[in-house]
Amino acid sequence: MCYSNSLSASLIQLENTYRKGTSLLKDFSSIYLVSGFSLPIWPVITQEKNFVPMNWGLVPSWFRGTEPQEIANKTLNARIETLEEKASFKHLVQHQRCIIPSTGFFENQTLATHKKPFFIYPNQGSFFHMAGLYDRSVDVTSRLTYQSFTIITTEANNMMSEIHNTKKRMPLLLTEDEYHAYLQGDVAINSLNPLPESYMSCHPVNKRIFTSTENNVPRVQHRMEDNIGTQGLLF
């Protein structure tokens, strides 16, 4: 599942790639690594003319609690196979789609008794276009609107099957042509296939940095040179 993400880009790069305004992103700074479980704010692409800052971890419009994390930690991801079945997602599938820009995500490979973290990043262009859904809810105490999103996941391609070798999942990543059609609602979500591995690259990263409490730093994405558990497809 996709719980660790990055957006190590500038506002100019985001504007030039997606042709969206950044006037609402006043507090944005590069994200080298963040956990979805911290419910971070992310620049999200909808059909609006500007990027919309939203919290990762979808809080449905029908939620009436006072603590968003009660449900948000369970809705960081949404499985493509069950979107139409889940109460949190099924009403969003057609009209509340979004794109989550990413410069790469992290996933652990399980090797016997330990885990080996990898950084997976695009090799065609600067960004992965992650397919998502979004919703708006109202805080029952403050009456403020809370905007949030989930990242759709799908079955892993061959490369990701070797990395995420337990659950064999990956984010639903779209090509540029696909993401425009996706936002417009012109394509059925369940017809979209996993992004081919030819669009992706990966390398292992330093586990000590990855698991530290201060890991939102550039070196968390740097290649870790080691041969432990090396598999031919990955290198």
Question: How do you describe this structure in short?
Answer:
The chain contains five helices and 13 strands. With 235 residues, it is of the alpha+beta class.
Detailed description of the structure:
The chain is α+β, with helices and mostly antiparallel strands and 235 residues long. The chain has 5 helices and 13 strands. The radius of gyration is 17 Å and the shape is globular.
Q: Helices and strands in order, then pairings?
A:
Blueprint (H helix, E strand, L loop, with lengths): L3 E4 L3 H8 L12 E5 L5 E4 L7 E5 L12 H4 L4 E3 L17 E6 L1 E8 L2 E9 L5 E11 L6 E11 L2 H6 L5 E3 L1 E2 L1 H9 L15 E5 L2 H4 L25
Parallel strand pairs: 4-10, 5-10
Antiparallel strand pairs: 1-2, 1-7, 3-4, 6-9, 7-8, 8-13, 9-10, 9-12, 10-11
